[in-house]
Amino acid sequence: MLITEKPHSLVSNFEAVRELLGLTGPESLRAVREAALAKFAEAGIPTTRDEEFKYLPLNRFRETEYVPAYGATLSEDDLKALPLSVLDGPCLTIVNGEFAPELSNVSGLPNGVRVMALSEALEQHEGLVMRHLGKIATHEGKLGTTNDERFTHLNTAYMAEGVYVFVAKGVMVEPTIHLRFITQADHGAIAVHPRVVIELEEGAAAKIVESYHGLGGESFTNVVHEIALGANANLEYVKSQTEGGSTIHIANQYVDQKSGSVFTSNQVAFGAAISRTDLNVFVDGEHTETSLNGAYLGQGEQIIDNHTRIDHAKPNCHSFEVYKGILDDRSVGVFNGKIFVYEDAQKTDAKQTNQALLLSANATINTKPQLEIFADDVKCTHGATVGQIREDALFYLRSRGIPEMDARGLLVYAFAAEVLEKISIDVVREALEAELYRRLNRD
Amino acid sequence: MLQIQNLHASVEDKTILNGVNLTINPGEVHAIMGPNGSGKSTLASILAGRDGYDITEGSATYLGEDLLEMDPEVRAAKGLFLAFQYPVEIPGVSNTYFLRAAVNAVRKQRGESDMDAMEFMKFIREKIKILDLDPSLLNRSVNEGFSGGEKKRNEIFQMAALEPKMCILDETDSGLDIDALKVVSDGVNALRSPERGFLVITHYQRLLNYIVPDFVHVLVDGRIVRSGDKTLAYELEEKGYGWIEESLAGAK
User: Cα separation of B166 and B28, whole Å?
Assistant: First the structure.
């Protein structure tokens, strides 16, 4: 008996927007979108039998009928209470996948810096954008074939809007660039697929903070990043993920580092119903530095899944990675850290640490370091710990008069705050510390 | 202020303290000396309330109350302070935040109001001068990356900030060079007062040149086997712990 399954709404919705999408970007993108849609349709919604989604039950997808998203009308007042609203520099806002000019202000940036909606960038600087669009977000041709890129394909299929950031050669951007991604699903369950392209040319430096917020309803954010760092470029990147509620957040981030570049990623996740980030860094030059810092807090029944992958393809590079998670209630944490050291990448120095603190007997962490090393003169270490609060530290605090409950709270906070300390932008670090504290105290 | 009577304690069925008797009155400085493994640090830990010890016999009374029944934070709030032999590193908690939480917790117990941030910083800047500590340490995580000497000075700094009634110093001299030893001792001596009692635990007589005790006790095998004035410390330094152990064996 032949059973023909009805295609999932994430696939069938394409029909309704195909022509609209076709209006954005060069003609050649039409075929790219069609091909990507076909790849996603073939792969389908992953199940826990798919290795890369082993701990990520996506049943919620199967039960949800998504409709195409359109923007929502929001004012700054609606956003005042959001974490990171304290940032008052250049800011670009995407609401339900659409650019929201009334919530954006990118004036005052130095010459050589462009922060704009991706659709606009495709109109005005097609050549520049197309240097990287679709070129970085793939693992084809790289070592190993373990990445599952179906959600990247899904994003590519619907790719039209998002953010474009460009910093020209040698330009140091002083103000922190803030990119806001907001969903408000008030017309059914919506799926949005923003694409973010960031290029720092040779010797350029910038600090970019992204924040993801949910203002209610069932939304699915499926974002893809393509980040190109030229020689000696320096990017400090912060991602704050706080959609919460019954939202799903999936991010596939691809970074390409040329020689001498420095990439610092600080990923802070306070969760959605399901949140998953794949952060992939391809080191394509010597003497680079890569720091991947992650802090996350799972509460209720949240599932927070972080996959990282560093491809050390060239010699003499350093990578340093630390992810720390606090898991309470019935929450589930997943950490998968892949490090590939290619045959040529001698003198690679890679260190990976991931730690989880379980506050409840029903909380779970699944952790898997995965190192594949093909060079012989390298230093690679990894360590994973799962634990409860340190008794010696608890006694020390209590011996100074701090009541046991407060001391425990302080140590839980400190466990993740240690990672937040690595954020160099004071106002961002302080806001995220306050958010962590507030959530731990369930204010 | 502190009365310890016939205190017996064990860890996992191994007897560590074997009938300790000791009374400390306000204003007195007592030193406990003893060889390694004699139970010195165990005594300090039990007095501060660390878990993991079975009290099999005896009692400890502090300010007329049963000390051993109190939680560690209650002991601290009532003015008992232990300077740790191995101060604990707590990444992610700033020294200032920690100290303010501690000072305010102790003030609350005394029925005093919280210090606000401004008041507290003024208070703390005065205290930090006494210990010759770099003020930048206040912004760092508790003890994280501190040198051995900085950790010990930080202990005495906390002691100065919390203004306790009964101070217990557990081998505060270990790992200190002579300059650091002097700074730490000066910090302790500045806190000596007729209302405050001290119990100084050390392996070496050296510390007692700087913090001069009123009484010296020798702890061997979990018991105080000899007590005297500061001259007992000199005698020990000269003749070694073997002398006491031999004379004990002779007495049997």
Answer: 10
